[in-house]
Amino acid sequence: MAANLIARRLSGQAVSTSRPCAPATSHAAGRRCSGRVHSTNPGFEKAFMGEDFGARDPTPGEIGSNFGEKIVMNWDTEHIIKPPDAIGEHVGLGSRQCQDVSALQLLEEQLRERLRQQVPGWRINNNKEGLQCIRQEWTAKDGAAAQQLVAKLQEIAQQHGHPLSHAEAISSTVIAEITTTALGGLTENDFIIADRINSTDLTELLAKRKQRFWA
């Protein structure tokens, strides 16, 4: 092909140096060549967008910067869909009553986790005696409101027949723990009390949450 081009130049014939388009088909006659790039390579977007294209976990440096204190709503990855309030009277912990300790047994891990998901805000922990318990903290308006909140939590627990294992106010912070001490761990009663506390309106005693903005 190169020899033919040289011969045509020597004979004085015009030689086109542009790259010709592929022959046009009957339904696309007259169309210009397209300069678009098409790729079926699964790594194509990654090559252009980088490794962190889309959602990702926070880096250790980001976690260490406490970025969760500067964002709107809840930064945690645990998302809970709240069912209609009325449904709690018919299913779940809201439909159950505390039983006598003699009728209880310690919960296995699978059931324990299932019940924990029904009481948002409560976390499984170990108390000072080394017993497994569920724990939650609140921030009250002030020290006086914190003492009132402790009394209110104890009242709710006593009313439903299963006392709190621990409740105290440290300045304006209130800490409550629930466990079945007689059996040395968590039973269904503990989660029922946590559900009753969650169902009680405590807003008049709690500090207002500050509006958070993106950093």
Automatic annotation (TrEMBL):
<keyword id="KW-0456">Lyase</keyword>
<comment type="similarity">
    <text>Belongs to the pterin-4-alpha-carbinolamine dehydratase family.</text>
</comment>
<protein>
    <recommendedName>
        <fullName>4a-hydroxytetrahydrobiopterin dehydratase</fullName>
        <ecNumber>4.2.1.96</ecNumber>
    </recommendedName>
</protein>
<feature type="region of interest" description="Disordered">
    <location>
        <begin position="17"/>
        <end position="37"/>
    </location>
</feature>
<dbReference type="InterPro" id="IPR036428">
    <property type="entry name" value="PCD_sf"/>
</dbReference>
<dbReference type="InterPro" id="IPR001533">
    <property type="entry name" value="Pterin_deHydtase"/>
</dbReference>
<dbReference type="Pfam" id="PF01329">
    <property type="entry name" value="Pterin_4a"/>
</dbReference>
